[in-house]
Amino acid sequence: MRKFHMKKLNSEPYYKPEPWTITEEAFKVETNHHNETIFALGNGYMGVRGTLEEDYSGPEGTSTPGIYINGVYGSEQILYDEEPPQQPQKTQTILNLGDWTMINLHLDGEKFDILQGEVDDYQRVLNMKEGRLERSLSWTSPSGKKVRIETTRLLSFTDQHLGVIKYSVIALNFSGTIKISSGIEGNVKNYYHIRGKKAVKVIDRNISRDNGYIIQKVDSTDITVGISIKNQLETPSDAVEINNFIKEEKVYQEFNFDVTEDQEIVLCKYASFYTSLDGKEKELKGKTLTAVKDAAQKGYRQILAEQQEYLANYWDDVDVQIEGDLALQQAFRYNALNLLQSTGIDGRTNAAAKGLTGEFYEGHYFWDTETYILPFFLYNKPEVARSLLIYRYNNLDKARKNAERVRVDGALFPWRTINGEEASSYYMGSTIQFHIDADIAYSIKQYLSVTKDDDFLYDFGAEILFETARMWASRGSYIELLDNKFCINEVCGPDEYKPGVNNNCYTNYMAKLNLEFAVETYKKMEREAADKLKQLIEKISLAEEEIKSWQKAADNMYLPFSEELAVHPQDDSFLKKDPLDIDSIPDQELPLVANWHPLAIWRYQIIKQADVIMLMLLLGEQFSIEQKKANYDYYEPKTTHDSSLSPSMYSIIASEIGYREDAYNYFIQTARLDLDDYNENAYKGVHLACMGSAWMVLVQGFAGMRNYQGQLHFKPYLPEKWDSYQFKIKFKDSRLRVKVSTEDVYYQLLSGEELSIIHNKKEITVDGDGIREKLRKID
Ligand code: BGC
């Protein structure tokens, strides 16, 4: 049997397989850090890690609280030892903001601490179906007082500025005094990247009987954040003593009251967040205070109901069902929830590599968005795909400046960013990946073919396409010794282990697509939107000659192919690099990116992540099955999959070429990566691109879906271990359901116009009655 390289999988899933929930059955210090990520909540605007409401007394390094707002970042001078010119000068780092979740409980003076006394019946449950986190436990204090504690936490999707916690306590075996304190802690820090400095400070704060707030300022970026809370306490008696405190950067309220055995008290805490990126700084206090008042008036139950309704609609759009493997079913829902939780939809923010679940990668947005996250939204919630592309449009001016920096024309999008500027100080792993421009152009093309949203193309897309085409036209050259072909030298493809190469195959093919699509768009606008084209030509001073030069570059693009090996060389030098058997690398030295000097890596034929193989997916119609097979056979044994963006691509192509066992094994590594913590780093935040790619594996790998020139193709099969799977797709004006079972596949139109699709190379029409077709045999 062919050998393939993947990290060891855990035999047992960390969380028991359940369809709609993720359950933690015991609180343990050892798993706390991981669970803080797994139980993180988000709503695209903000995120909160799954830290406890109460103070945590565990050992240092086992907890990193995190409250993030998408797009709120701090910045500091990058320190270069030997500074090459034109380097980015400033970092951008997502910041940990005021902790509004803090609630502490005292029973007759004894403070509830989950690591003291005795905890029974503990459960923490992420309710994915309805979008909330619930925790319940019984706690017996060291002196023997027992309470039942139940908490619910949610970040609202219908009002992205709102968070709510319901905290309920029942005295089980005593009558006495309870004290609950609830507030906002503004003295917070980042755990990575900020070099220990305090990046945000509280510039205003107050608390009264009715509410409390803090205003935090990020000096380095001048962003201001307002956080308000309102505590609403329901106790059986009115005799509650309330004390308000302001201590340094913290504001909080203490509620003291007497309880008798079996009495329940409930605290509902409403929190609101706005920043100076949303509106005027001086209005933050007023806005957030009004918001918590309104939320309290609306009430917890209503907010919960709205959340349920929002999620019900979401699942109706995106849910994937797998019969025969509950652990994978669970993972799909977990991934889909995280994609929603982390993705900014305002055109001003985007989806960070770690979502809103951790500080790692500094909260940066990468090409991950277009290539791994956007496809999921495109076929399920195309309006989200649109806003992700609008984010790029809104940062086009900064991309133009970035292009100037490296002396190319047009626009070059940053490899790592929050605010639209390049934030990476390591250009060999970032700016050199020029392909990001083509990845964005490719996504625009995909978006158009799925939505027919020509207005988007004319108003936003075209400008991106023209500016990125300009970039390629100036970036490449006609090289005499290579038949005067248009070559793109000194780049890095997706495989970050090969920077500084000439003619990366992925890059050249994708750049060609970018150039061609820019020309096509220009011609389409000449025909259909002449006025808008005219305006755009004036705006960006576009000359007719440029369009010709794009076409010429595309027509003459150097597209590498080795007749001798019958493979597509990853770049001009790859086939001649030093061979290395990756099985000879000791496990503890992987991932190489974390252990070997770059110079020790670059010389070898070793690949970090799918590169040519990814091209085989994105531009699949340009390559034959034989070529895909040859490329897979050649590159797969050389790939370490040191990036979580890799196994999924191999899985999809393995499916296409009939290597079903590989396809499945690469897939499992993708689907439950964070839940089962295969890479032992989920505590730093989820792997959002990998989550998006699990959906790609199911739909593009197992069901074989491709969108070639606006025509949907399917070649479905059922992985041996499953009984069936099904998903929905939005395409043009239609909504399609695809169910793959042991015997056949059933395509059904759920709404919209009848759709003609290609099933196993045969054209069929799908209508409301549905149509059954035979499954694909191995080619
Ligand atoms: C991968 C990149 C990816 C980044 C963020 C790196 O390890 O090589 O392709 O963009 O992680 O996910």
- Give the integer mean of the pLDDT values: 96
Question: Oligomeric form of this entry?
Answer: single chain
Instruction: Please report the number of helical segments.
Output: 19
- What order do the strands of the largest sheet run in, or round the barrel if closed? 1-9-10-11-12-19-16-15-14
For the sheet with most strands, the description reads:
9 strands, antiparallel
The class by helix and strand makeup works out as alpha+beta
Cα-to-Cα separation, first versus last residue = 18 Å
Query: Would you report the number of β strands?
Result: 30
Radius of gyration: 27 Å
- Hetero groups: beta-D-glucopyranose
List unreliable stretches of 5+ residues: none
The outline comes out as globular
Proportion of β residues?
Answer: 15-25%
Helix content: 25-40%
Description:
The chain has 779 residues and is an alpha+beta fold. The chain is built from 19 helices and 30 strands. The strands form 7 sheets. A 9-stranded antiparallel beta sheet has the order 1-9-10-11-12-19-16-15-14. A 5-stranded antiparallel beta sheet has the order 8-7-13-18-17, with no helix packed on it. The chain has a 5-stranded antiparallel beta sheet with strand order 20-25-26-27-30. A hairpin with a 2-residue loop joins strand 26 and strand 27 (744-751). Helix 5 (368-380) packs parallel to helix 8 (435-451), helix 6 crosses helix 9 and helix 10 (505-528) packs antiparallel against helix 12 (544-555). The two termini are 18 Å apart. The mean pLDDT is 96. It binds beta-D-glucopyranose. Beta-D-glucopyranose (BGC) is lined by residues 353, 361, 366-368, 494, 496, 608-609, 643, 645, 689.
